[in-house]
Amino acid sequence: MVKESRLSRRSTERSRELLERARSLVPRAAQTNSKSPTQYVQGVSPTHIERGDGCRVWDVDGNEYIDCVMGLGPNLLGHNYPPVTEAVREQTEKGTAFSMPNPLQLDVAELIVDVVPCAEMVRFGKNGNDVTTLAAKLARAHTGRDIIATQGYHGWPDVFMSSNPGLSSGIPDVVGEYTESFDYNDIESLERIFEEHPDDVAAIVTTPVNMSAPEDDFIQQMREIADREDALLVFDEILTGFRFALGGAQEYYGVTPDLACFAKGISNGYPLSALAGREDVMRTMENPDFMFSMTYAGEAASLAAAKACITEQIEQGDVHDHIWRQGEAIKNGYNDLAEDHGLEHITASSGLGPRVSVNFNDAENASSNALESLFMQEAHRGGVLFSGSHLPSYSHSDEDIEEMLAVYDDALAELEDALDADAVEERLDGEPVGASIREQIGEED
Ligand SMILES: Cc1ncc(COP(=O)(O)O)c(C=O)c1O
């Protein structure tokens, strides 16, 4: 048996108590799928986080962790990042929700227009899906066409989820007739949509990059097809924006879309999203029959956070290089460790620096799910809030990455040992990742 993890005796008792309360009060026990207890090792992993600072978070039992996904991406600079916290504190003292726009909407819009290649005008929302939905609707209104060609995740709205048979409950079939899916790095699958719907594709709504890099000028080819077909090219930069580069993946890859959606890295943990793009398209929102409006869209604390967050990225100058470097260090460090433990055929890290994942394959005597769950259990006990992917922040120092990799080293040693002993599932002290919440309370899923 390998040495016991440094923090293996940490208690998660309060986490479990809160999970019991959540089960009776909150369907799925969380507000976001990826934050649900089902994504973790129920019974071992923490379930509620109390506070964060830099790249560290503390759970409700007071246990400290190095954060890997930083709240699913928004904390680009770090939790409680001082210039952002200060800007929000100043604004909250002046009030946050007014009956007319606050001037901060102009400051933030100007910053976005300055740094994002496609941005000529900007509108704000709160969540990413506010502006991905807006982009699809605006493209339809602007072009007078109905079909949205799409790939990648763009949030839960009907226009996107209708094309996902596994997640389309509650959406009338007819909605799905107007959304067509294609595959990333498969330009033929996109061409087919245009062939099947001549002159009726309003927009290609796509993440500019997924886990793997674009191949064969895929992004440029999407641009060329959109131009040839008089359709709009919309980049969903909710994850890549302000992360791959100050101007997003469109700056990094040198392809300018007609519209782009931003959230997460725009405001360092405060709820703000933005649609930016070509003036003529954006002005279609001024048509009297076009509607996009919500009470909190111009809420001032989040705009203050965004102003401070983007300004900090401009002033520091090395935010994006830092994020790329730390992500590559995690990926390469993990793959070296997997090799050291003879596990390179079982687990590997992949992706591009700003977003790096760790994946598991089935072994002869253990499923990928059991292996991932055991690795997660050990990572959590060692003080790393592992959840499969890494969205490094400006606050992850070289020492933090070293510490993270030291914990991964221990976790992989445990995996190696458990595989040798044919005891992967046996060593799991909680439910494997993906176990339903209802099973835990004795109901059918
Ligand atoms: C690429 C992408 N688009 C859209 C969304 C939806 O954003 P939100 O959850 O803020 O609505 C996400 C969320 O993770 C995302 O990663």
Notes on the protein architecture:
By secondary structure, the protein is an alpha/beta fold. The chain is built from 15 helices and 14 strands. 50% of the residues are buried. It has a seven-stranded mixed β-sheet, with helices on both faces. The chain has two domains: 13-79 and 319-440, Aspartate Aminotransferase, domain 1; 82-316, Aspartate Aminotransferase, domain 2. 39% of the residues lie in helices and 14% in strands. Bound molecules: pyridoxal-5'-phosphate. The site of pyridoxal-5'-phosphate has 13 residues, from α4. Pyridoxal-5'-phosphate binds at residues 72, 127-129, 132, 153-155, 207, 236, 238-239, 263.
Provide the descriptors you would attach to this structure in a database record.
seven-stranded mixed sheet; Aspartate Aminotransferase, domain 2; disordered C terminus; 2 domains; 15 helices; 445 residues; globular; alpha/beta; binds pyridoxal-5'-phosphate; 14% strand
Helices and strands in order, then pairings?
Layout (H helix, E strand, L loop, with lengths): L12 H13 L23 E5 L2 E4 L4 E4 L14 H13 L9 H12 L5 E5 L2 H16 L3 E5 L6 H4 L11 H4 L2 E3 L5 H10 L4 E6 L11 H11 L3 E5 L11 H6 L5 E4 L10 E5 L1 H4 L17 H17 L2 H22 L6 E6 L2 E6 L7 H15 L1 E2 L3 E2 L7 H23 L16 H4 L5
Parallel strand pairs: 3-13, 5-6, 5-7, 7-8, 8-9
Antiparallel strand pairs: 1-2, 2-3, 4-10, 9-10, 11-12, 12-14
The chain binds pyridoxal-5'-phosphate.
